[in-house]
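Possible regression after last week's pipeline update?

I re-ran a chain I had predicted before the update to compare outputs. Posting the input and the new output here so someone can diff against the archived version. Not blocking, just want to make sure nothing changed silently.
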Amino acid sequence: MAAKTPTIARIWRGKTLPDKAGAYERYNYEAGIKPLIEKALGVETFRDDTPTHSEFITISYWESVAAMAAFTGGDPKSIHHLDRDKEFLIELPKSVQVLRIRSSHGMVGGDSHGTIGPQD
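New output (post-update):
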């Protein structure tokens, strides 16, 4: 069976206060990223620390809008907030960005084995 090719990227963004960033990263990985890894073709997570906040970005890759919509339960731009997001996030995100992938070059993402957990 041929590998599926991602044609869609779904981008989620959220911000925490710096003192909550480590705990949120661990929680988000266990409660949000691990289940997403089981459904999406690929998942990347990013963290940008500043003096006032830490921003988290998750990009998941999908073979089609229909596949992504099946995961979200309908609207591919709908957000499924995790149970503790209100405790950690400065503001609950209201939407995600959905982009059609036009080209991709070289190795993207983490290591060649495809798995990197939260970094301390």
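Follow-up from reviewer: compared with the archived run. The chain has three helices and four strands. Marking as no regression found.
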